[in-house]
Amino acid sequence: MAKIIMLMAGLLSLLVAILHIIIVFIGAEGYRFFGAGEQMAKMAEQGSWIPAIVTLAIAVVFAIWAAYAFASAGLVAKMPLQKTALVAISAIYIIRALAVLALVIKPELATSFNIWSSLTSLLIGLFYAFGSYYLEFAAN
């Protein structure tokens, strides 16, 4: 069961990576819709490479995170600092999920995107946390 959870974590991270690549191709409206901010959208409209470079770099990070999940599930070779990385990835996703708490302070930020992205981050973070615990820590 833990391998399936970790496989799901990896697939979801890979999906997030692919989504970031798609955003680059959509352009300014993609940046706006997915909450990257008006500045990123305007730079994309003006033909700047900065939004694409930043977004593709983020996609690479998510793809690497997917590789760590797949390694923990035994689908690819072990990755460097695997246990440490999995703890960090879990923590980053869960901390990102806590951004929903900012909506209590600034309710005007309560867009469906902010709520859904926080819930998605929480789900993925919990998959990483539980999967890596059972596969990397409890098993040893």
Spatial separation of the terminal alpha carbons: 17 Å
Shape summary: globular
Largest sheet: none
From N to C, what is the helix and strand string?
A: HHHHHHH
Low-confidence stretches: none
Query: Helical amount among residues, as a percent range?
Result: over 70%
Helix-and-strand structural type: mainly alpha
Number of strands: 0
Tally of individual helices: 7
Give structural attributes.
140 residues; mainly alpha
What can you tell me about this protein's structure?
- This protein is mostly helical and 140 residues long.
- The chain has one domain (2-137).
- 77% of the residues lie in helices and 0% in strands.
- The chain has seven helices and no strands.
- It is globular, with a radius of gyration of 16 Å.
In short:
This protein is an all-alpha fold. It has 7 helices and no strands. It is globular and about 50 Å long.
Write the layout of secondary structure elements.
Layout: H1 2-26, H2 28-33, H3 38-45, H4 50-72, H5 82-97, H6 102-105, H7 112-137
